[in-house]
UniProtKB/TrEMBL annotation:
GO terms for cellular component: plasma membrane. Pfam families: BPD_transp_1 (PF00528). It is a multi-pass membrane protein. GO terms for biological process: transmembrane transport. It comes from Ferrovibrio terrae. The keyword Transmembrane applies. It is found in: Cell membrane. Keywords: Membrane, Transmembrane, Transmembrane helix, Transport. The chain crosses the membrane at residues 32-54, 61-85, 97-118, 159-181, 201-222. Residues 26-222 form the ABC transmembrane type-1 domain. This is ABC transporter permease subunit. The keyword Transmembrane helix applies.
Amino acid sequence: MNTISDAFLLSLQMMAQLDPELLRIIGLSLRVSLTAVVIGSILGLPLGALLALTRFPGRDACVVVLNACMGLPPVVVGLIVYLILSRSGPLGTFGWLFTPAGMVMAQVVLITPIVAALSRQTVADLWIEYEEQLRSLGLTPLKAIATLLWDGRFSLSTAVFAGFGRAIAEVGAIIIVGGNINGFTRTMTTAISLETSRGDLALAMALGIVLLAIAISINAAASALGNAARRRQGA
């Protein structure tokens, strides 16, 4: 590839022709990230709500740790998950190292604190707004968790989208845990890194364009749902 413009045109051609390798990499990236987001949301939303509505010794410390975990270094998470999934690790018998399952696990570790921390503040605000009404119905804070999570579903979706955005753009953790194996654990971000180092700019650019499109779509969806939540609250 002699010029950047040639690489860009070839990347557009690959997308237009639905290049099989391109589609395979995109499909794996979406499957891994969406699975991780579902699991991370199942864990993170109740955890955030629990921290928002309960008071116990050490709660403030838990909140501080949770907020700090939003910025976990991906390579450190990858190393920890690698050690856990290695043959001598506690989960080594599952054989998840260098598999999509292991990549999902690494992303879940990264996503869950983000979803939990963002949902904690949303649920806390909802409890302040509806506390009197919910108590009049005989609901304690713990019993009100499901109600508040449902009522704040539009606002909470922003936390889920933030988790997905972190997952789909992740490279450090999954390249350590997944190994970047062609046709098996190669995602968009790891492929971009590899193909750029190889000089195959066409595939790297095509994947980059798709990744940017996904990122823009995520932000647009989060903004739309946030606006819908504000209109609903103002109604």
